[in-house]
């Protein structure tokens, strides 16, 4: 596991977006991208890898035979799962929202779904409410923008959820 800088994260994000656009152009099918919401510049660690592997297995199990392309790699952004899925983008997004809302580790990740043309499918587009902060239940966007919670609070929440999951599944 490497130490990265903020610039490394920005460059990795740019490379990922370019890669995603290439995949969308090539396959002309919806895409799912899973990333762990781990704050700070050290996004690659045992917890983020563990969370991504657990949810990767859940998602791959759900879409099993519909997965046309799979890429799992660790970059400065942390662990990233990208899937091209032969299914309706809205159905993929509904399942991703289900995971984010109902799986013990679901609030620790962002699962983005893109239409064939690269347009992101939002929760609100499908009639769902915006995500809530896992610490205070305010709208997550508000807390992120205002930096309402310390990095330590967010990391503690993520670490605790991961420990809970592992204790339940022993």
Short description:
This protein has 170 residues and is an alpha+beta fold. 46% of the residues lie in helices and 17% in strands.
Taking pLDDT < 50 over at least 5 consecutive residues as the criterion, the unreliable ranges are none
CATH topology: Alpha-Beta Plaits
Overall geometry comes to: globular
Name of the CATH class: Alpha Beta
Largest sheet: number of strands, sense, barrel closure: 4 strands, antiparallel
What's the gyration radius in Å? 16 Å
What is the N-to-C succession of helices and strands?
HEHEEHEHH
Strand tally is: 4
- End-to-end C-alpha gap: 26 Å
CATH architecture: 2-Layer Sandwich
Q: Total number of helical segments? A: 5
CATH superfamily: ACT-like. Chain A, domain 2
Measured by DSSP, the beta-strand proportion falls in: 15-25%
Strand order of the largest sheet: 2-3-1-4
**Integer count of domains:** 1
Q: Helical content, roughly?
A: 40-55%
Overall pLDDT metric: 95
Structural class computed from helices and strand pairing: alpha+beta
Structural features, described:
One of its GO terms (biological process) is prosthetic group biosynthetic process. GO terms for molecular function: holo-citrate lyase synthase activity; lyase activity. This is citrate lyase holo-[acyl-carrier protein] synthase. With 170 residues, the protein is an alpha+beta fold. It has a single domain, classed as ACT-like. Chain A, domain 2 (Alpha-Beta Plaits), CATH 3.30.70. Helices cover 46% and strands 17% of the residues. The chain contains 5 helices and 4 strands; from the N terminus they run αβαββαβαα. It has helices at 6-27, 46-63, 89-102, 140-146, 151-168; strands at residues 31-36, 67-75, 78-85, 109-114. The protein has a 4-stranded antiparallel sheet, sandwiched between helices. A hairpin with a 2-residue loop joins strand 2 and strand 3 (78-85). The longest helix has 22 residues, at 6-27. The two termini are 26 Å apart. The relative contact order is 0.16.
């Amino acid at each position: 596991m490497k130490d990265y800088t903020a610039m490394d994260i920005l460059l990795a994000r740019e490379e990922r977006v370019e890669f995603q656009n290439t995949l969308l152009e090539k396959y002309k099918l919806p895409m799912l991208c899973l990333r762990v919401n781990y704050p700070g510049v050290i996004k690659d660690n045992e917890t983020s890898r563990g969370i991504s592997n657990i949810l990767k297995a859940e998602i791959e199990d759900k879409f099993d035979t519909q997965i046309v392309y799979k890429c799992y790699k660790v970059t400065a952004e942390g662990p990233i799962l990208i899937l091209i899925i032969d299914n309706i983008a809205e159905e993929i997004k509904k399942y991703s929202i289900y995971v984010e809302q109902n799986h013990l580790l679901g609030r620790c990740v962002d699962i983005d779904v893109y239409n064939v043309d690269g347009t992101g499918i939002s929760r609100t587009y499908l009639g769902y409410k915006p995500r809530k902060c896992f610490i205070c239940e305010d709208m997550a966007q508000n807390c992120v923008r205002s930096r309402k919670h310390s990095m330590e609070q967010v990391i503690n929440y993520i670490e605790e959820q991961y420990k809970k999951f592992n204790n339940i599944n022993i």
